[in-house]
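Customer escalation, tier 2.

The customer says the design service returned an amino acid string that "doesn't look like it belongs to this structure." They asked us to rerun it and document both sides in this ticket. The original structure tokens are below, unchanged.
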């Protein structure tokens, strides 16, 4: 009764209403009532006959009562039989109703299944197919029932393969994982299906056929193949990378290597010690310069690596660490050679600048040297005189010493400017750089009869730079500005220094002939001067960019050109 209750609850309301209309008890009740009426009519007739009969013998009276007793007894027996039959009919009707509900429920399940069901007898004849199977192959149930191989849904050019699969099914050797088979729809289209086969047995346990379930796996197979191909492409890319890629999970027993590409395995094998070594280098390295660029030297294999880490969730939900390390030993060697070449170019630029300023320097040095000669001549004359004036002699000597110091400062600045030394970035005040540059720039300004006006605010922060290189840039810009103003009516070149955020900006503003395309000035071997080589400004931009700054040019609204460059302020973390 429990099953009946559950099925009645699951089945549609219309089906349950149809079951209620089966009033199986009406006929037995009607027959019983009719029989009771007949008995009462019989008894009433016998009573009327007895009353209208004048004489009855004792024997006839006994017979009469015996007949009535037999009729009543038989009536009672018939009533009991009818009640028993009614009870049996009710039980049978409930059983039939339950069977009908179960059959209807099973049929509803079969009709709603998306998996095709097929039953073959022991000879391979189709004896049952569900609607899902019919929808899958396109043939109706009537067209499939009773068919033998080759079945209509077999692919014509693969009949041997289908026959092989059928032999496996009929022999009971179907793998538990199922079989993958291609099938043909009625419209001729091909789809891929997976078959699962199990023996069909009767209530006595005797096998009477094979139950087959068929699922259309065309789309899942396409997706799986696409995912497999994507995985293979992804793994091919990872395996072909020159970077070492590894994924490690931290466990109580130490780091566990979950993935490593071919480059990692070539360098470190299949253990996690290479990952741990690089990770410890990133966490324990105290050189801020390398920490910022993530570049580390591993002495075990004499190589430099650029290392990056990222934490991510693994497929099982664990937190793991992805590490990508690139061997940059060759790149650093190239950078070292490039720096050496850059130093040579910068030195050549400074020597070229000094060569171009040779006449100005010679004139500037000639003045103190001539003065020294004159003062020494005067000193000799004072000494040879009969009346030696010591006070006047000391004055002449002081003037001679002053001129010698002046010549010494000029030579010292030239020597410092052109000497070859290793680039060294340090904390330096911008006003020191400007002052040192002006010692040489003032000589060039006299050549063109121009003045240099400097706007330098107080209390500017220090810059992180190589002072000699920045002096080279500033001197080159001032020299270009003075040359551009050679024929200008304006007699002042302006140098303005200011702080912009965390950078110091230096502007050289001239009133020369201006530029049509300022950006082209920084192209190698491009020059607006007849005898220019076109490398000076390119070297200057390289120097500024090496200092993590930038150099640019723009037209002066009042005429001329504005050259600007910025260099970062000094921070202790970068020392």
């Amino acid at each position: 009764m429990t099953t009946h209750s559950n099925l009645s609850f699951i089945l549609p309301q219309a089906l349950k209403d149809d079951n209620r209309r089966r009033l199986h008890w009406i006929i037995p009740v009607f027959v019983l009532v009719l029989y009771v009426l007949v008995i009462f009519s019989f008894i009433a007739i016998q009573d009327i006959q007895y009353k209208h009969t004048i004489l009855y013998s004792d024997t006839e009276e006994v017979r009469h009562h015996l007949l009535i007793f037999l009729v009543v007894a038989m009536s009672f027996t018939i009533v009991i039989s009818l009640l028993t039959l009614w009870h049996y009919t009710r039980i049978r009707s409930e059983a039939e109703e339950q069977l009908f509900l179960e059959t209807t429920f099973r049929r509803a399940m079969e009709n709603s299944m998306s998996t095709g069901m097929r039953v073959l007898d022991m000879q391979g004849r189709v004896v049952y197919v569900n609607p899902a199977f019919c929808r899958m192959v396109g043939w109706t149930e009537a067209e499939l029932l009773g068919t033998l191989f080759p079945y209509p849904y077999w692919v014509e050019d693969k009949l041997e393969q289908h026959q092989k699969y059928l032999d496996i099914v009929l022999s009971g050797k179907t793998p538990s994982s199922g079989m993958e088979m291609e099938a043909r729809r009625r419209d001729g289209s091909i789809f891929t299906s997976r078959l699962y086969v199990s023996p069909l047995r009767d209530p006595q346990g005797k096998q009477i056929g094979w139950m087959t379930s068929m699922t259309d796996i065309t789309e899942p197979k396409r997706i799986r193949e696409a995912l497999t191909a994507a995985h293979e492409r992804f793994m091919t890319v990872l395996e072909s990378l020159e970077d070492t890629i590894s994924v490690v999970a931290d466990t109580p027993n130490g780091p566990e290597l979950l993935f490593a590409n071919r480059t990692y395995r070539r360098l470190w094998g299949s253990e996690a010690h290479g990952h741990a070594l690089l990770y410890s280098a990133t966490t324990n390295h105290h050189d801020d310069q390398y920490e910022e660029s993530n570049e580390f030297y591993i002495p075990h294999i004499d190589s430099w690596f650029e290392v990056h880490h990222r934490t991510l969730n693994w497929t099982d939900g664990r937190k793991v660490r992805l590490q990508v390390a690139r061997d940059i030993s060759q790149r650093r060697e190239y950078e070292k050679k490039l720096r050496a070449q850059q130093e040579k170019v910068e030195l050549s630029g400074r020597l070229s600048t000094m060569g171009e300023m040779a006449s100005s320097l010679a004139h500037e040095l000639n003045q103190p040297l001539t003065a020294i000669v004159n003062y020494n001549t005067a000193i000799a004359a004072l000494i040879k005189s009969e009346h030696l004036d010591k006070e006047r002699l000391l004055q002449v000597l002081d003037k001679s010493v002053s001129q010698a110091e002046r010549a010494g400062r000029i030579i010292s600045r030239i020597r410092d400017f052109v000497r070859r030394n290793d680039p060294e970035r340090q904390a330096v005040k911008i006003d020191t750089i400007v002052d040192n540059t002006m010692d040489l720039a003032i000589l060039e300004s006299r050549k063109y009869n121009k003045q240099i006006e400097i706007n330098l605010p107080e209390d500017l922060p220090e810059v992180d730079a190589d002072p000699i290189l920045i002096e080279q840039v500033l001197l080159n810009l001032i020299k270009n500005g003075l040359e551009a103003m050679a024929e200008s009516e304006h007699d002042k070149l302006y140098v303005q220094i200011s702080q912009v955020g965390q950078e110091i900006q230096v502007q050289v503003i001239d009133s020369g002939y201006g530029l049509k395309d300022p950006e082209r000035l920084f192209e190698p071997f491009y020059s607006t001067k007849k005898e220019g080589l076109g490398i000076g400004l390119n070297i200057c931009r390289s120097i500024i960019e090496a200092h993590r700054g930038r150099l640019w040019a723009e037209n002066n609204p009042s005429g001329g050109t504005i050259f600007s460059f910025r260099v970062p302020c000094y921070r202790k973390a970068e020392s």
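Tier 2 assessment: The sequence is consistent with the input. The chain has five domains: 2-111, 114-222, 241-324, 328-422, 425-575. Residues 58-112 form the longest helix (55 residues). Sent an explanation to the customer and offered a walkthrough call.
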